Amino acid sequence: MTASPTFRLPCRFLAVALVLFGLLGCSGLAGVNRDTFKPYVPEVVQGNFISKEQRQVLSRGMARVQVREILGTPLVASLFHADRWDYAFSIQRQGVAPQNFRLTVHFKGDVLDRIEGDDLPSESEFAGRLIKPRTPGKLPTLQASEEDLKKFTTTSLAKPTNPPAASAPRTYPPLEPASR
């Protein structure tokens, strides 16, 4: 009988080589930014944004219709609390701190009685908060040495000596048809 060859040694060698090459491949990721392989997180916006300017327009004694025109439809208008409208707004963006604002409007009958809520930002302040802060990279120096300035002499910037040949002025057809 002939003995079948065993491949234990080459299989072990191949497994060890595979593990070593895998570990060597991971060492090349040292220069990769941590945000490179970060999963995408969608922007989540809920509610109506109420600005400081909108809040300042509200005054005691306004009708419900006027308040709705200024602030929009309330996020919560409960049947159990018919004299109370709640406005809430939240936004979550990747790389920016989440923002939450709340405003509650109370009515007496059909007239605005009082307003409670957070300190609201103006529209420009809110837009500024949504921008992800960036750190500028290294900026090049914008100085020219004497050698750089000598490269651009007045002779190289002078007008060409051979002006284009002067030809008769061009004539164009009229823009409007001739009147009859």
Features:
alpha+beta, Beta-lactamase Inhibitory Protein, Chain:B, domain 1, 4-stranded antiparallel beta sheet, 4 strands
CA-atom Rg in angstroms: 36 Å
Strand percentage: 15-25%
C-alpha end-to-end distance? 117 Å
CATH topology title of the domain at 44-125 = Beta-lactamase Inhibitory Protein, Chain:B, domain 1
Largest sheet: 4 strands, antiparallel
**Contiguous runs where pLDDT drops below 50 for at least 5 residues:** none
The helix/strand class is alpha+beta
The general outline is: flat
Verbal overview:
A 4-stranded antiparallel sheet has the order 1-2-3-4. Strand 3 (99-108) and strand 4 (111-117) form a beta hairpin. The chain is an alpha+beta fold. The longest helix has 19 residues, at 8-26. It has a domain at 44-125: Beta-lactamase Inhibitory Protein, Chain:B, domain 1, CATH 3.30.1450.10. It has 5 helices and 4 strands.
Mind sketching the topology for me?
Layout: H1 8-26, E1 44-47, H2 52-57, H3 64-71, E2 84-92, E3 99-108, E4 111-117, H4 123-129, H5 146-150
Antiparallel strand pairs: 1-2, 2-3, 3-4
Question: What's the short story on this structure?
Answer:
25% of the residues lie in helices and 17% in strands. It is α+β, with helices and mostly antiparallel strands. The protein is flat.
